[in-house]
Amino acid sequence: MQTQVIAHKVSEDMRNASWIREMFEKGRRLKAQFGPGAVCDLSLGNPNAAHPDAFFDAVMEVARDRRPEYHRYMPNAGFEFARTAVADFLRLEYRMPFGKDDVILTTGAAGGMNVIMRALCNPGDEVVLLAPYFSEYRFYVEQAGGRAVVVQTDAGFQPDVPAIEAAITEKTRAVVLNSPNNPSGAVYTEARLNALADMLARHDGAHHPIYLVLDDPYRRILYDLEWCPTPAHAYARTLIVSSYSKDLSVSGERLGYVAVPRSVPGREDVLGAMTMLNRTLGYVNAPAFMQRVITRCANALCDVDFYRRNRDRLCNALLEFGYDLQVPGGALYVFPRSPLEDDTAFVDILLKHKILAVPGAGFARPGYFRISFCVDPDTIERSLPGFEAAMREARGS
Question: With a threshold of 0.90, does the pTM exceed it?
């Protein structure tokens, strides 16, 4: 009998690891076999739009400042001047009052989500996830002792408010929203968000608080709207988590934040808990260098038109080939319906044509597959014959 050398839960999670990472490994093997230029990797959401000039100007300015105190520990919530800059941005972006004391700087949005889940969840508490959803959410919830409750969105990938209400129990602690959505690219409508806020307000109570957690890293990656609707104005117990990974196209720099609106009941306790967890979960504080950089470019934005051009070229071609899809209104992905009932089988067909995509099963929405268009335009062009051939093969089968 083999000795169990790691925790049982971690071992189970490794077996059920993200489809995105599995496709990454398959892609690595394909690239080794055929060469990187022969493989069209559309599996990872790795932002690649041009960085705004303000970001590099800020990097150069911060690097020239040799004061040692800027490389030491600071309050676990982050430098006050950095939190002030983020709060100033949030005040304009969300059209709500925010100050430095409403903001905690985190190690990316993922760090922020982990801090939130640990602060909110008692063992066995339930967190509602709207499918399709970013696959790591389930790990964040379970590692905090909670249980993920999956509710499908409707045919247009919009929140199904009656279905969400039916899933609420006395153990419901939070509902997580991600709009624009990964993987569907759907932007949730103001009407649907207001309906969700009204429903949650009926169920929220002092002895049974339900938080609405907005995971908003794609909020400014929009293609058809000037401003992304938000339920933050309509529901008091809302928490906002985001990062600069997509805004600035700097996902490797790992700077994010949690914002707690002033409407949140017991907000001082919530802020205090998350600040402590920033330390005790091992993050300690967000990287000091990036905090100082963001102070100088908190409202800058990458070249979104680059993504828009990629989206249009890819979606127009896929529609021409006969794929059933909704053109994404935001984020970095398109989520077509699989031509085969088994989405993993169709992704295997794409692999034969050296195209890496991710099955919808990896996002709790079987029957679809995700394509990332944050790639070089040449990669999209090289992939198109393979997509056309894969559709012909699927129809033939």
Answer: yes
